[in-house]
Specification:
Blueprint: E1 2-11, E2 14-24, E3 29-33, H1 40-48, E4 55-60, E5 63-64, H2 70-75, E6 78-81, H3 93-98, H4 113-118, H5 120-124, H6 135-147, E7 153-157, H7 165-182, E8 185-189, H8 193-199, E9 202-207, E10 210-216, H9 222-229
Parallel strand pairs: 3-8, 3-9, 6-7, 7-8
Antiparallel strand pairs: 1-2, 1-4, 4-5, 9-10
The structure holds adenosine-5'-triphosphate.
Pfam families: ABC_tran (PF00005)
Family: Belongs to the ABC transporter superfamily.
Domain ABC transporter: 2-231
Length: 231
């Protein structure tokens, strides 16, 4: 589905991602893990075209994303829920959802009904300002906004950050439901180990900009956790 090949990225003179190669298989949820500052968000931003690469390829189906401008990538069917959610606080829930629409490949101006079926709270709060929603509701709004393009691949960057435990559980259920009902492939940047184990099929661990391990979730043993994940 998505394959990253020998990717290098710099912030100015600072080499941040080093010869990174990693595969995200179709129909699976891969958790990208690692301590703070290892390059997880930078990698997601590179996939979306929000950061320039120095070298490398990002193969998504038949396209090398590295050659495409950022605005073309969402249209290929990649939805992004960025870190911190980035809801527009003064716009209504409906307006926040509409922001995703221009990237739809079919140019439809209609918010797909399944989004309100998945997240009834967004239907109930359509006219409310984004900033009036709770953290968990804002996260549902951010996921809903990423889904308005009918993506095939959904990227979520730490969706559980700063969210109450019962809502965290609900977000995990929603991700699995999206995969089952819509056949989505998911890339989940996640630092909470129990959540990653519950939701993910696979893991990829980064450390100081390099891939250190990847595999199925049952292969994420204590040694890897100690070496790369515990603080
Ligand atoms: N805009 C920027 N300019 C310069 N350096 C940056 C910039 N953004 C991130 N960095 C640096 O790049 C490295 C990787 O950061 P990144 O945010 O990708 O890590 P992360 O693994 O997502 O961390 P976190 O878990 O804290 O979100 C860090 O050393 C960070 O300080």
């Amino acid at each position: 589905m998505l394959q990253i090949d020998t990717l290098n990225q710099y912030y100015g003179e600072s080499h941040t991602l080093w010869d990174l190669s990693v595969t995200f298989p179709e129909g699976e949820c891969t958790c990208v893990m690692g301590r703070n500052g290892v390059g997880k968000t930078t990698l997601m931003d590179c996939i979306m075209g929000l950061r320039p690469l120095r070298s490398g390829a990002i193969q998504f189906q038949d396209h090398n994303l590295a050659r495409l401008p950022a605005e073309r990538r969402a249209g290929l069917g990649i939805g992004y829920v960025p870190q911190g959610r980035q809801i527009f606080p003064l716009l209504s829930v409906e307006e926040n959802l509409r922001i995703g629409l221009p990237a739809r490949a079919d140019r439809s101006r209609h918010i797909p009904d399944f989004i309100f079926e998945l997240f009834p709270v967004l239907d109930q709060m359509r006219g409310r300002r984004g900033g009036d929603l709770s953290g968990g509701q804002q996260q549902q709004l951010a996921i809903g906004r990423a889904l308005v393009i009918d993506p095939k691949l959904l990227i979520l960057d730490e969706p559980t950050e700063g969210i109450q435990p019962n809502i965290v559980h609900e977000i995990g259920d929603i991700i699995r439901r999206l995969m089952e009902q819509l056949g989505l492939t998911v890339i989940l940047v996640e630092q909470k180990l129990p959540f990653a184990r519950r939701v993910g099929d696979r893991f990829a661990i980064l450390d100081r900009g390099r891939l250190k391990a990847e595999g199925t979730m049952d292969a994420l043993g204590d040694e890897l956790v100690r070496e790369y994940l515990t603080v």
